[in-house]
Amino acid sequence: MDNAPIGIFDSGLGGLTVARAVIDKLPDEEVLYLGDTANSPYGPRPIAEIRELALAGLDELASRGVKVLVIACNTATAAALSDARERYWVDAHIPVIEVITPAARAAVTTTRNHRIGIIGTRATIQSEAYSNALAAVPGLTVVPRACPLFVEFVEAGITTGPDLLAAAHEYLDPLREADVDTLVLGCTHYPLLTGVIGRVMGEGVSLVTSSEATANVTYNELTDRDLLHEPRVAEDDVPHHRFLTTSTPATFAKLARRFLGPEVNSADEVDLVGGI
Ligand code: DGL
Q1: How far, CA to CA in Å, does 73 sit from each of 15, 58, 98?
Q2: Fewest CB atoms within 10 A around its CB: which of 20, 44, 177, 228?
Q3: Active site residue: 118, 187, 255, 272, which one?
């Protein structure tokens, strides 16, 4: 048993989709969430810069005593996973969970025609992290596509409307024409856009998100390593999730409440050491 919180990191609000799934699957656990909103979006930045920012955020969570780190960001995973595993698992024995392998696995079990589309930020797509994760599966056709504006829409709280729909057509029409039957939302912001993505891709295309699959990995990791929170039996023993942001807490809390739910009471501002 371990009553320390689960640390969840993202460049901004997208990781809340993973946090939601983790809270639903592990209701006794406490979450400490950090969104590096001051530096979001990560997607257009060079890989070395994303690595530096992600490690600064993960350092902050590690220094606050989390029992496991969830990198709830595909872009940060693509840029920093091996460094993070070295730094926290090898050196400090804090398990590090990522979002790319769980989503890639889920896509393989979902597709029927073996044609999988991958959408993500420019950095994630350029890193080829998904294509590499899927490379060992025989007979797959993988069609990747960067959708840089999607994160900016979400961070601005925009999940409907004509501008978003136009951007979705520009990004997704080629994937529909490529006849993919499964689309990996390879960015944790994108589950907040399933309305518009589903509308453009059509009903025959399954949307795969990393949130559910990553929450399953988190459940298994805590169970296998005996890191679960002790059962909360008393009625007033409820988890107090905490939310940290590198920009304005009130703005973050308002959007986070909308995207995650009533568990977000407030947010606190944090300055990241080593950030740029
Ligand atoms: N949520 C991050 C991801 O999964 C995103 C993005 C960003 O800051 O560009 O890739």
Answers
A1: 6, 12, 8
A2: 177
A3: 187
Q: Counting atoms of ligand 1 from 1, which one is nearest the CA of 15? A: 1
Q: Is 147 marked active-site?
A: no
CA–CA gap between residue 31 and residue 25 (Å, rounded)? 12
| Rounded-to-integer distance, Cα 161 and Cα 225, Å | 45
Region at 161 (left for phi over 0; alpha for psi -120 to 50; beta for the rest): left
* CB-count burial class (<10 Å; 0-12, 13-18, 19+) for 194: middle
For 203-235, the pLDDT digits (tens) are: 999 999 989 999 999 999 999 999 999 999 998
Report, in angstroms and rounded to the nearest whole number, the Rg of the chain calculated over CA atoms. Answer: 18
C-alpha distances out from residue 157 to 17, 64, 266, Å: 14, 29, 17
39 CB-side CA count, 13 A: 27
**Exposure pattern of 213-223 as b/e (b: 16+ CB <10 Å)?**
bbbbbbbebbe
The pair of three-digit structure tokens given for residue 171, joined into one six-digit string:
């990004």
Closest C-alpha among 119, 110, 171 to residue 143: 119
Q: Please give the Cα distance from 145 to 154 (Å, whole number).
A: 18
Q: Which two tokens stand for residue 140?
A: 């797959």
57 lines ligand 1 (CB under 6 A): no
**Model pLDDT for residues 122-142, shown as the tens digit of each residue:** 999 999 999 999 999 999 999
Single-letter residue type at 160: T
Put simply, whether the predicted model's pTM sits higher than 0.85 gets the answer: yes
Token pair for 212? 């559910």
Q: Is the CB of 41 under 6 A from ligand 1?
A: yes
